[in-house]
Amino acid sequence: xxxxxxxxxxxxxxxxxxxxxxxxxxxxxxxxxxxxxxxxxxxxxxxxxxxxxxxxxxxxxxxxxxxxxxxxxxxxxxxxxxxxxxxxxxxxxxxxxxxxxxxxxxxxxxxxxxxxxxxxxxxxxxxxxxxxxxxxxxxxxxxxxxxxxxxxxxxxxxxxxxxxxxxxxxxxxxxxxxxxxxxxxxxx
Length: 188
Description:
9 helices
């Protein structure tokens, strides 16, 4: 028996829905993005969105699958960890609208907030634990890093608070890098 290796039509439909959903959630936020608008952007009937994802929350959860991709900081000189982490997070926020959408939605939607918490707990906490001094509460430090990074993203990309929204990436690295450095490697 020969197996057909061609992609199924449903794979393309799912990909189109997810791409449209990420775009709409990034542009409109969770509350204002509609299944109809997402379906229109994907050039499909809204019932297909519901068929594949069940609900707006189900679609959002699928669209919000996100890997921070934060490098293992142990490969860097200890004094460069904070600055490199800030630069990395700025690149990710600016290059990927799904993080912005997730942040917008997390402000008003518990499912989105839970997804954000899981991303930072599952992906950031282990990185911080590897570089934190022995005997410190690495989870607390990871929480502080997350608070700093999420606060920066909220003020820069969602609220567009001047002057944070208009500062260069280098300026933000210079200001926030030392704070993250302290969270990563500073003694209590």
